[in-house]
Amino acid sequence: MAEDTAIFAGGCFWCMVRPFDTLPGIKKVVSGYTGGHTDHPTYEQVCSHTTGHTEAVEITFDPDVISYEELVNIYWQVTDPTDAGGQFQDRGDSYRPVIFVNSPEQRKIAEASKAELQASDRFNGKKIVTQIEDAKPFWPAEDYHQDFYKKNPLRDAIQEAPRKRFEQEHWSDKA
C-alpha cells in the first residue's frame, strides 16, 4: 500500500481536518504547526506570533486511491485563496493559506492548479494569493486539538459556519 503526505494551511487547523478526514484513501489527518523556526512549538507559542509557524494539517494518503491533485482541488474549495490575512474569522499570520509541497511533483501540481484557478475567474478578478512553499518540519499539535470536530461537534459547527457560507457562495453553483 503506497503512502504519501500533503500539508495544507488554511485557517484554524480544526476546520481543515473534516474536509479530508473521511475521504477514501486518507489514512490520517493530523493538526499541527509548520513553517516556523522553533522546534516543538506549543499552541500558546504559535498564538504569540513569535515562532513563524502556521496552523496546518498533515494528510497521510494512499496515492493509488486519491491523488495529490484531487487533494489540492479539495483544498481550494475549503479555503479562501484570495485572503492572505487569514481565513474567515481566523486572522493573522498563523492562519495564512499555504500549500506546503514536499517534492518537485507536488510543486508542479500545486502551481498548475493555482494557475488554473486564477484563470477560471471563479473569484471575479481577485488574485489567488495562497502561497506554495517547500515543506518544513511539521509538529503535531497537542492532543486536545486532534479530531476536534469529533470531540466538540457544537463548537465545530459554530467555527465551521463561515467556511460553509463561503463554499456555497463560490463553489456550489459554479462547479
From TrEMBL:
<dbReference type="Pfam" id="PF01625">
    <property type="entry name" value="PMSR"/>
</dbReference>
<comment type="similarity">
    <text>Belongs to the MsrA Met sulfoxide reductase family.</text>
</comment>
<feature type="domain" description="Peptide methionine sulphoxide reductase MsrA">
    <location>
        <begin position="5"/>
        <end position="154"/>
    </location>
</feature>
<protein>
    <recommendedName>
        <fullName>Peptide methionine sulfoxide reductase MsrA</fullName>
        <ecNumber>1.8.4.11</ecNumber>
    </recommendedName>
</protein>
<comment type="function">
    <text>Has an important function as a repair enzyme for proteins that have been inactivated by oxidation. Catalyzes the reversible oxidation-reduction of methionine sulfoxide in proteins to methionine.</text>
</comment>
<dbReference type="InterPro" id="IPR036509">
    <property type="entry name" value="Met_Sox_Rdtase_MsrA_sf"/>
</dbReference>
<dbReference type="InterPro" id="IPR002569">
    <property type="entry name" value="Met_Sox_Rdtase_MsrA_dom"/>
</dbReference>
<feature type="active site">
    <location>
        <position position="12"/>
    </location>
</feature>
<dbReference type="GO" id="GO:0008113">
    <property type="term" value="F:peptide-methionine (S)-S-oxide reductase activity"/>
</dbReference>
<keyword id="KW-0560">Oxidoreductase</keyword>
